[in-house]
Structure formats: structure tokens, C-alpha cells
Amino acid sequence: MQDVPLTTNWIFERGMRFFPTRAVVTRTATGLERATFADVGAQTRRIAAALDALGVSPDGRVATFAWNTARHLALYFAIPGSGRVMHTGNIRYFPEQLVYTFNHAEDEAVFVDRSLLPLFAKYLPQLRTLKHIVVMDDGAPAEIPDDPRVLDYTELVGAQQELDLTDRVDDEHRAAAICYTSGTTGNPKGVLYSHRSTWLHSNASLTSSAFSMNDRDRVLPVVPMFHANAWGLPYAAFLGGAALIMPGPDLSPAALLALMESEQVTVAAGVPTIWMGMVPMLAAHDLSHLRVVVCGGSAVPRSLSEAWRTTIGLPITQAWGMTEMSPLGTVCYLRDEVADADDETQASIRATQGIAPPGVDLRIVDPQTREELPWDDEHTGELEARGPWLARQYYRTDAPGEQFSPDGWLRTGDVAAISPLGYLRLVDRTKDLVKSGGEWISSVELENELMAHPLVAEAAVIALPHPKWGERPLACVVVRDGEQVSKEELLEFLRGRLSSWQVPDDVVFIDEVPKTSVGKFSKKTLRDRFADYTLPTG
Description:
Elements: H1 8-18, E1 23-28, E2 31-36, H2 37-54, E3 61-65, H3 70-81, E4 85-88, H4 95-105, E5 107-113, H5 117-120, E6 132-136, E7 150-152, H6 153-158, E8 175-180, E9 190-194, H7 195-206, E10 218-221, H8 228-231, H9 233-240, E11 243-246, H10 253-262, E12 267-270, H11 272-278, E13 292-295, H12 302-312, E14 317-321, E15 328-331, H13 343-350, E16 361-365, E17 381-386, E18 410-418, E19 424-429, E20 434-436, E21 439-441, H14 443-450, E22 456-466, E23 470-479, H15 487-495, E24 506-509, H16 523-529
Parallel strand pairs: 1-11, 3-4, 3-5, 4-8, 5-6, 6-7, 10-11, 10-12, 12-13, 13-14, 23-24
Antiparallel strand pairs: 1-2, 8-9, 14-15, 16-17, 17-18, 18-19, 20-21, 22-23
């Protein structure tokens, strides 16, 4: 058989040849900018030429620090397509994390949206390897730093001739991009994606085992392009010919809903907090064109999915993955065996993380004996995964380390069960389980039950020390705007839905649940905040 390299340039050239007129719409501070795949392609080839002109190393790391835009999409193809490695800088990192990742990647150049310059420029003195700072003017009046390394995107790229990228990368195992983990424990860790892994991941995303995307779709990646390559959606959309609707910097529920309605979005993807904020506004918008709303990043409360289903007739599609998995791990769709099941059964299935697509293997193991456990939806163990788009070790490490099993599987850090039909059900993160009197309590289950209460906007549960039981759960609750609910009401609500020993010992009300750089609940922040809190013992 022919041996053709699987590269991002293959994806790019297919999009250019088959779908040159497909739309790429970007919402900016001043309105909508409309482009086509052909327009993005022309930018891509000029950016690649600019990187050559700047003298960036043939395999150098080039960072982005930008919103979801057409320009960012062009960088997705130009940087790896020219043989370099794209590092998507996370704009939500803490300062020390941002500085660490840029220095760890040894970025030679960075492309920055002007609106993000006030955030980025303050760290320039600490970024040791940066030689070029290319500013992309997105209409923001931010001051340009007085730094000899600063270049104007329009002047730099506009001066270049288009560079043919067809045969620029001939090794599919060459690095294409580097994404860093959320860094909830220690420094963020780098995950290096290859051209091959990106190609395979993109193809899998188009299948019926994932999102069934094709050239009739209009895809809105609300998930940031700095978070695991926007879950691979920009590459998958280009490969399948789906139009891309880029939300830019305004990610408010009202703005996103207006964009979804006006641009007739069919596929949208984001984290739970995005879709939670939209629930009160759903009925006021025509979203009849939507066919799938993908939710990942953290477990989707059943109440959230059902709120979408009852309001617009479309439940949320839950997906699960990790930066180490590019990130696609599972997608929840209804198998034929349950396609005609009653609403209650289907809602329970949609509350799971779903089924692994072809290309991902899963197993659950006993953490002590390493024995593989059966798929019966009852046995729970540590979830491990392997596949051609999963990392085998972290960037710039000498060995895989403890995150990987002795036989090479990724140890996800999740406790899970898998049903006979293959549906993955995450019980909790290993570090977030509550060990009470010898029994494990799932913080995820408690959070989902709390968020089923109509007056609760968000809820996070953490374990606190207890003199008798070792640990007991504390519920941290955010009440919906303008509403009131008491601790006693919430505990009574839970008593009707959980065993008595699972009910939290106390409830505290907070203004918001702290989030990580990728929008997940930051349990570490809550544990630090309530480290000295004493649970009632009566």
C-alpha cells in the first residue's frame, strides 16, 4: 500500500481543494468579519513565509496568544505546516504558569491579539527565548509595548508571497503542536501532538462515533483555541468542509446565543458553565438549526442536559477527554439498544461520559492489584486509556513517569465504571473522592444532585477532615441570581435523593465556584480556602 504522510498539510490542502468557498465568520469588537477557507489559506501560506523570513528555526516553537478567530485558524495551519511547533498559550493561566510554559517550550516567536497585550506585555521581561512578538490588531485600543521585538501582523504577513506547503512536512511523526495541562498540581505539563495524531484525531471527530460533522455543518467552537487545540474542532471542520463560526472575545451567554441564532450554528462545543448560563435565555432564541451541543471539561449535570431538552428539544451531548488525549476520549450517543428506551433511561445514559470512538481503548483497574475489572457498571477502578492520539510521556521528560502504567497506558486519575454496552461513568477524580468511614463518596454525584435543585446555579463538593469518619463532604453552593435558599432546604432536598451517609455535613454559600484555566471547578482553591473550616459534629 502507498505510504502517504498523515499531516496537517494534508488536512489543509483538502479543505482548500474541496471547500474553498466555505465560510469562516469571526465576531470582533466592531462586528462580524467574513472570510472563506481560501482567504484563510492565503493567510496561512503568507504566515509560513513570514516565519521563514524571520529566521525562526526549522523546528522552532511558535506561540499564539489569541481568541478564537480566523487569524488564529490560519496560524493553526501555518505553524505546523511549515515544520514548526505551535504552542497555544493559555490566556487564563496564573502569571507564574504563563511564564513557565513559554520558557519551558522555548518559544521563539508569538502572535498576540492586540486586545490581549495588556495581559501579555507585563511578562515580556521574563520570557527568555522570545525573539519576535507579532501583534494582530483586533480593534482594541491597547497600547503597543516599546519593545524592539514587536512587529505588526498586517505589515509582516502582507509583505510575503504565498509559500507552497504541500511537501513541507514529510514525516507524520514530526511534532505539530504543544498544549500544556491545566496545572492544578505543580507546573503545567507539556503534551506534544504529532502530525499523525492530529490527522487521526480529526478523522475520528467526523465519524458517527463522535460528532458526525460534514460540509453542511456550521461549527461554533466556544471552547478556546488555547485549550487542547479547541478539542481538535478547527482541524476537523477544515477536513470535513464545515463552516467555522469564531466567537472572538465576547463569550457571554447572551452574545453566544445571538451568534448561534444569526449564524444558524449546527454544532457548538464548550464547558458546562457556558451552557448553564444560557438556560434562562434559551426560550427567547430560535435554535432549531442546532443538532448537537457538545459539553466537556467536567461532568455534565443531568439537570443541565434535561433543561436544554425540555426547553428546545435538544439535550446536551456529553464528551470526555484530557489534554493528554488530544483530547477526544468518549462521546455520549444513544446506541441502538437504547434508542427506543423511555425518557428516564435515556436521560440516565446521557448523564454518562459515553463511548470511546474507534482509536481509543479504555480499561478500569484495581489500583492495588492492577487487575483489570469487568465492564458491569458496578465495579469501579482507576480509568486508563491508550490509542494513537494519546501521549506516551510528557514533553522534555526522560521517561513516561507515574502518569503512565508499566505497560504504557495513560493513567487518567479518574475513578470510573464501564457498562456492558461500553458507556463510561466517571465516579470522581481520585483526589476528589471523599473517604468517609471506609466508604467512598463521589463529589461529582453530590454536585450533580445539588445542581438539580432549581435555585442552585453551581455547586462544588470537597472533603474536609472529621474526627469520627476521617473525612466528610462540604458543599459549596452558588445560588441563582435573585433567589434565596437555606442550608436546611438543600440538605432536605438531598435526603430525598441520596443515602443518609452521602448527604454533606454542611453547606456554605459562595459567590462563585473558582475555575481552573480551562474552566473546570478548582477544588484545590476551595480546599485551600476552607482548610481551617470545622464541620459540625452533632
